[in-house]
């Protein structure tokens, strides 16, 4: 018996964000959600590239080599992002999650990287069918914190894997569809502010996918929606729902990114050509190399954290900032992560102030030692005034004025101004 999908999707920029970096696609055979990241580094462009690339899979999957076809589409998408970075180095750091399902009428072929989630409601039972590629999930898996503690962890949004890195290895699953299943794909704009219990309750009570999607998005908005909110709900049904239009939303539907002469489709087309050329070379020289390579990489999955530190982890780490204590004992701004990943310290001194850590107020001493995350140099300036004791010495020093030790990378304008004074 061939099954069908009845679907609905909504993407909202949320309450706080000025733009939408999420993208979503829904069709009779293929559904996907991507959550872009990178801020000024064009997270919206990254998610739009990926969705416009993988949307070509909205056709009945082949009888065999489905995983290979899915992997090739994701590789094309990643290649297109990397091409954008090569053409414009200012976009270094752009990336995106991806969670997608390719349906053949009986089986779902899932690909996942990042923290956009897939949930399933089946006969009253509710479960998350993806595993977040996040630092806190790694801590949960290692038994170092509980799932409840992960929800409150200050680094809960820190990704270990995402598309846009030089090397990526998504997770693949094959899941059997059952009539009555209700599936949800969503960005963390939903799973962050709305609990799993509330998501499950909404899915159980909603009569249609459209009602479920609308209710879930509204719940995220009511909770403050600090991030973009994207929700896709798909029901597995036995009756053919008739013709359903493809849905594309969020950044992927932005008119500025959807025209035929834009960076998105140019990058997608070029990446596909590159992928075809590589595929031809492989088929002539080593027809089984790709398959064997994938098997080998799967075997190496047990060492994935070390691989991330060497590749994608470093890429993502360099887009993060925190305030900590330098080797000289001064309050300083760092790029990277204020903790170790697999025994590696991914942190680089960005700006060192002349203010000793001893001047910090007592209430933040321990936080300063472990690292206080900030959004960037501007946010660090604002945070600095709350950290230091105004009665301590050096009152005349401007916050976070770069010293010679901290000039290994580009210094923000504010730091340059106080250095020149």
Automatic annotation (TrEMBL):
Protein name as it appears in the record: Protein phosphatase
The PPM-type phosphatase domain, residue ranges: 6-236
Taxonomic classification: Bacteria, Bacillati, Actinomycetota, Actinomycetes, Glycomycetales
Residues that span the membrane, as ranges: 295-317
Keyword Hydrolase part of the UniProt annotation: yes
Pfam families from the UniProt entry: PP2C_2 (PF13672)
MF-aspect GO terms: protein serine/threonine phosphatase activity
Keyword list, A-Z: Hydrolase, Membrane, Transmembrane, Transmembrane helix
